[in-house]
Design goal:
329 residues, alpha/beta, Rossmann fold, 2 domains, eight-stranded mixed beta sheet, globular
Length: 329
């Protein structure tokens, strides 16, 4: 399928483009300022959108998954990426800093409870935030579930996904000497934090290229180089988080801590052919979560922009909208 045609079809499922009614830089301490915006209805159902990566940044298209007449849509760039500053910084940048930042945004905007909407790493962060603050999450909408487990990291950086994409895996792996390929995250870490800007950018583009090429079922090969500034922030932050296993206390922590959020309803949208975050994580999550509704999308991969994914996410936000009174929103 032509990629641009697929993306056009995806936009048909979305609400029209809108502009923010509020944009600000929020000082969250530790030398960081994060970009925060609000769009839609100031008195609407509050929803916070958690972008992927880590390091992906938010985009205007993310506003379009919500009815702007009914939702108060809050987007922000997580520490070190997008319009947040300092750019590409990993200092004081961990999962727990981001959880604290989300709470700072909630308190700053005067919101009691809200909907949490996140995909990929955003789904990870949504789950961890909800488990940390279960009284603040009214409903979770998750896409392309990633649980920050060793098995998931081994799948994508240990050759699992490479069995389906041997040509692209070779491009990614051959930049690393053979005696270092047993730990691709560690090997890339050395180069992404070398202090040599040209070297960092080269390896950042390779890191981003490997992931981007596998994001959509409509892709069949490299998708072109990402802009240098974006790639460097994305690759450094993602690698930094993965090298430290998200700063979780134990492998499998999110599933183990599910009892903390069993009372919270959730909608899980998962592409059947997701090569980055295989469906087994979404399945395991839904099997253990009595109030979770898993919606497996056929002929869809990982990307937010997949037509089937976009359509199902809009259905999910409309469903939450209909339940707003029951959810206390």
């Amino acid at each position: 399928m032509d990629r641009s045609a697929g993306q056009k079809r995806a936009t048909h499922h979305l609400f029209p483009p809108i502009d923010p009614f509020d944009q600000r830089m929020l000082d969250v301490g530790d030398g960081h300022q994060i970009y925060v915006e609000q769009s839609g209805s100031p008195s609407g159902i509050p929803v916070i959108v958690l972008h992927g990566g880590p390091g992906g940044g938010c985009s205007p298209a993310m506003r379009r998954y919500f009815d702007p007449a009914e939702y108060r849509i809050i987007l922000f760039d997580q520490r070190g990426c997008g319009r947040s500053r300092p750019h590409a910084s990993v200092e004081a940048n961990t999962t727990w800093h981001l959880v604290r930042d989300i709470e700072t945004i909630r308190q700053t905007l005067g919101i009691e409870r809200w909907v949490i909407f996140g995909g990929s790493w955003g789904a990870t962060l949504a789950l961890i935030y909800a488990q940390t603050h279960p009284d603040r999450a009214a409903h979770l909408v998750l896409r392309g579930v990633f649980l920050m487990t060793r098995a998931e990291l081994d799948w994508f950086y240990g050759g699992g996904a490479g069995r389906f994409w041997p040509d692209l895996w070779a491009r990614f792996a051959e930049l690393i000497p053979a005696d270092e390929r047993h730990d691709m995250i560690g090997a890339y870490h050395k180069r992404l934090f070398s202090g040599d800007m040209m070297l960092e950018t080269r390896y950042a583009r390779a890191w981003a290229g490997w992931e981007n090429a596998l994001a959509s079922v409509s892709n069949d090969g490299p998708v072109g180089e990402a802009p240098a500034q974006y790639a460097r922030a994305f690759a450094r932050l993602e690698n930094h988080y993965f090298k430290h296993a998200g700063w979780l206390e134990r492998d499998g922590q999110i599933l183990q801590d599910l009892p903390l959020i069993q009372h919270i309803p959730a909608t899980i949208v998962q592409g059947r052919y997701d090569m980055i975050c295989p469906p087994t994580s979404a399945w395991d999550l839904a099997q253990r979560w009595s109030r979770a509704d898993l919606r497996m999308v056929p002929l869809a991969g990982h990307a937010l922009s997949e037509p089937g994914i976009s359509a199902e996410l809009v259905r999910a936000t409309r469903g939450v909208q209909r339940q707003a009174v029951a959810l206390g929103l």
